[in-house]
Amino acid sequence: MNGHPHPTGATSVALETVESALHDLRAKAPPRLADRALVEVGLADGLERFDSPIGRLVVAWNGRGVAMVDLDGDGTAIAERHRRLTGRPLVDDARMPARLRRAIERRLAGDRRATVPLDLRGRAPFEAAVWRKALDIPRGEVRPYGWIAAEIGRPRAVRAVGSALGRNPVPLVVPCHRVVRTDGSIGQYSLGGPTMKRRVLSAEGLDLEGLERLAASGTRYLGSDTTRIYCHPTCHHARRISDAHRMTFRNADAARRAGYRACRVCRPAVAA
Q: Average per-residue pLDDT in the chain?
């Protein structure tokens, strides 16, 4: 005897019954299940389309978050740009979770409270910090490159901030269009250039002509002679200043010498 009892007749019948039942349970996995699993764990990306002020967008996403935003167009060109950016394949029929879709729609509509997870793997910490700081700029307002640089603790890295914004992989979701040059001019835009940037800012209610007039005159800040506070020109507090009480300043030093203090909301002092 080897210590292992032989199955009885009843046991053999039971085993055969179980095996038969398990065989009957076999079914084919749903089509593309493996591809969808890769999207869920972030080894591939799905693709969804959204409307925006500058036209139809394509959004690449996975279980970690949004990885790319681009203008809709030729599918082959989009796939190639995505491959260069992420190194991952695209899955055509992955379905974006409803919660993520709603969050993206809210963000595109200007709701800063909408939390959209981002997949920024492979990006330098400095770039990620620049992009995340741009999220703090309200709809219909702009800040200069220097403001971003100072807010992230790198006040001398103004040029590097501009370069990082030009490489933003998720424009509109991260509103790099709300960052302008130090002289107040509109500057470039990673999603279609300055023309597209103007369209987005105009759709958000920004007075571009007024902003450009101030920039051309050398005005960087506006102050109120009643509150003795100075702001970035597009700050919602600055927009409430009447013509009779509006003061203009070429720099923060001029505002301080005149006895004005910096707005605590738009924080112009950090970029001085």
A: 90
